[in-house]
């Protein structure tokens, strides 16, 4: 056995077996199995892989990855993939255990496979290889059903998962976390579409961004157009050419907005009419991007809101719904931890991370980078509370990460590493929909839910929409705990199209009894200034109620009790018992009856929560 060239999956270095690896610091699996894909060490490893020119080893020749990527995928949905995995499928190949599987630094395919493999938890983890459609890299974490001939014409990509992995994620989601490998689109010979594309590592691909925007303008119609509301007349913009803070023009104008993390950058206050001078690097780069894309106006909170004027700040926060709905494009700085970081591709010292590239029998295969969904969960931008509403409210989003560019509108998602030029999903238009009135609903059925592309105008699903957004938001952090509802206010304003009576402390008045049934997923920390029954009063992941009939939750009986704590005991002071009531139409509705009761429980065994 050639130990000198054998790669250890624990530290990704050569010369020893994983069982003998002494570098505990690089064993990241127990903390984050997918952290490898964002590791600086991986940059060096992929750069080495791209330079590998040796012959392919016997094991990798026998694997025949080109044939694996040509074979039909035996499932048409994420549920079918999980079912076949659980039952045992010939389409899922077990390479063996981490401790015994050989990967050689002299083989370019071995190097590519190591770059695709998450960090293992243990030496007896098994390395599983499988293929899935490239489209599922864009359809969202749960994919979509590929149940028609045009949908099944997509190219396939090679995925690697480790087992066992009892982490609460389905096998499908685990398989698509991290990187993937597919054939270059211009080398496909069997009629498949959505193959790979080489990423511009040194330069920002502004022409590709223009193409995405132009296609969206031409194909998607009103669904992706900005919404001009009266509140926009109260906002300020930066006129990019003169670099001046101005009032919103009297007639509707096209402007780009920025979503980013401010971090610890020093704050400067700007007033109406001020010349902005030199700005923090992330803002400068985003404004340059907007100008190159043809925008004359730009909005960013730190400049367009007077930071020392509390009255103006409160007024502008109330306009957040309108600001992001009215933006023709929102630019997202996914990888920047603060406003001084800058964006990749705009400066000589900031490039995109290298892309896996390997030649197999004269055909080029490239890496697809982490998905947008994974990047939002893992990157700095996705941890900030304020930024969630900025994505949910924006019609057209350009996400800029250290790995690649992503674009998501109300209809479809794109990424730089996949060539969508011949893709069916990227060419659908409203006239293809059997019922144009429900165009966006039909699009969701065809293209999946994407990442943060969510319909917020379906009243029958209003409780589901509210709950999903609260759960997504609850995982994020904020500098000021008192902002727990303010940073979510834009989403609540948007949801008021379905909840006409509005919200009370973040709970929908029309589904109030259900809203009270939230629960934390781990011991929470108290946020002062909010009533204890409000989810915003607690810092923790929040699970919201899931009624049996989520489209009509009031058809389900709900028991509603109010408890008070005194002297170490809980006392029930209000009890609403729900029973089914037959209406004149024969439909079941909820009837609440109340009476005073006293039931005492000892809570001495529970720790007080700070």
TrEMBL record:
It comes from Moelleriella libera RCEF 2490. This is Heterokaryon incompatibility. Residues 255-390 form the Heterokaryon incompatibility domain. It comes from the Eukaryota.
